TrEMBL record:
InterPro entries, per database record: BUG, Bug_dom1
Species, as recorded: Polynucleobacter campilacus
Pfam families, A to Z: TctC
Keywords: Signal
Name of this chain's protein: ABC transporter substrate-binding protein
C-alpha cells in the first residue's frame, strides 16, 4: 500500500512539473507572439547630436511604426561606450532594450582591461545599419596640394608633422594610426577631448592633419577651409566626387568607416529578434530615411549586411583588424 502511494505521488509530481513547464513554455510563446506590448528603449552610447545619435533618431520613429510601439532613444554616454554596453548587457533579455553602437564595439577589448561584458558573446545581433565615411584632412596652408605631394612632405618632415585626434580609442585616432602604419612613419599625435576641438584647431591652423567624419567636414572641404587629401572609402563620395580615395592613390585597401550595428542583450528569443530585424530593414528602406541619411552623408549598408549574421561577421573582422593596431600603438597610453 505504501509503495503504491509513493508511486502515485511520484507520478503526480512528475505530471505537475510537466504541466508547469508546459505552462511556462506556452506563456513564453504567448509573450513572444504579443511582443511588443510596450515602448522599446534604444540605447545610444554617446551624447545627443553626434553621428551615432543622429542615426538612432532617424531610424527610431520608422522602427516604432513597424513594431506598433514607440522606440525611445536613451543617451548613456561615457567611457568610450563601455558604460552603455554594460547597461545593455545586463538588461533583461525581453527585447525591450536594444542598442546602437558604432565600431567601438570592435575595439573595446583591445582598449580596456577587464570589461564587464564581452562584445562578441554578451549580445544578440540584429543587423548592421549605416556607415559614416571619413576624410584625411590638412590645414588650409599646409604646403602639399594633393596626396602625392603629401607623401613626399611626410617623408621629409616625419615627426615634425602634427596629427590631431579626438582622444584615445576615438575613430579619428584609429584612422590616423592606420594611416601612419601604412605610410611607415610616426607623426606627432595630438589628442583632444572630442572631434569638435580637434577640428577647430585644424581650421585655425594649430595642427596639420586630421582624419574626420564626413558628417561635419564636407562643408569645410567645399568652401576651401581645409584640404582634403583622400577619402577612407573604396569608392568616391558623391558629395565630394572630386576628392580621390586613398585606395586609388596608392594605399590599397585603406578603408575606415564609422559603421553602426544594432544589438540586444544575450538571450532575447529568436522570434523577437526576427521582428526587430524586420523593423530595422523596413526603416532603412523608407524613402524618407534614405533621403535624410544621404543628406547627412551617411551610407545605408547593403541588404546582406542588415542581418544578424552580416553584423556578426563584420564585427569579427573588425576585431581582428583593429586589435593588433591598438596594441602595437599602446593605446590608451
Amino acid at each position: 500500500m505504501e509503495i503504491k502511494v509513493k508511486i502515485k505521488n511520484f507520478l503526480f509530481s512528475g505530471m505537475t512539473a510537466a504541466l508547469t513547464a508546459s505552462a511556462l513554455l506556452s506563456g513564453n510563446a504567448m509573450a513572444e507572439k504579443d511582443w511588443p506590448s510596450k515602448s522599446i528603449t534604444l540605447v545610444v552610447p554617446f551624447a545627443a547630436g553626434g553621428p551615432t545619435d543622429t542615426v538612432a533618431r532617424l531610424i527610431a520613429v520608422p522602427m516604432g511604426q513597424a513594431l506598433g510601439q514607440t522606440v525611445v532613444v536613451e543617451n548613456v554616454n561615457g567611457a568610450g561606450g563601455t558604460i552603455a554596453s554594460t547597461k545593455v548587457a545586463r538588461a533583461a533579455p525581453d527585447g525591450y532594450t536594444i542598442y546602437l553602437h558604432h565600431m567601438g564595439m570592435a575595439t573595446a577589448n583591445a582598449l580596456y582591461d577587464k570589461l564587464p561584458y564581452d562584445p562578441m558573446t554578451s549580445f544578440e545581433y540584429i543587423g548592421q545599419v549605416a556607415d559614416v565615411p571619413m576624410v584625411l584632412l590638412g590645414k588650409k596652408d599646409l604646403p602639399p596640394n594633393n596626396f602625392k605631394e603629401l607623401e613626399a612632405y611626410i617623408k621629409a618632415n616625419g615627426s615634425k608633422i602634427t596629427m590631431a585626434n579626438a582622444g584615445p580609442g576615438a575613430v579619428s585616432q584609429l584612422c590616423g594610426l592606420l594611416f601612419q602604419s601604412r605610410m611607415g612613419v610616426k607623426l606627432t599625435n595630438i589628442p583632444y577631448k572630442g572631434t569638435g576641438p580637434a577640428l577647430t584647431d585644424l581650421l585655425g591652423g594649430q595642427v596639420d592633419l586630421l582624419c574626420d567624419q564626413t558628417t561635419q567636414t564636407i562643408p569645410y572641404i567645399k568652401d576651401g577651409r581645409v584640404k582634403a587629401y583622400g577619402t577612407t572609402t573604396m569608392k568616391r563620395l558623391p558629395a565630394i566626387a572630386n576628392v580621390p580615395t586613398l585606395d586609388e592613390q596608392g594605399l590599397k585597401g585603406f578603408e575606415v568607416k564609422v559603421w553602426h550595428g544594432m544589438y540586444t542583450p544575450k538571450g532575447v528569443p529568436k522570434p523577437i529578434l526576427d521582428k526587430l530585424n524586420a523593423a530595422l530593414k523596413k526603416s532603412l528602406n523608407s524613402p524618407d530615411v534614405k533621403k535624410r541619411l544621404e543628406d547627412a552623408n551617411i551610407d545605408i549598408v547593403s541588404p546582406d549586411k542588415m542581418t544578424p549574421n552580416g553584423l556578426k561577421t563584420h564585427l569579427e573582422a573588425e576585431v581582428n583588424k583593429w586589435g593588433p593596431i591598438i596594441r602595437k600603438a599602446n593605446i590608451p597610453d
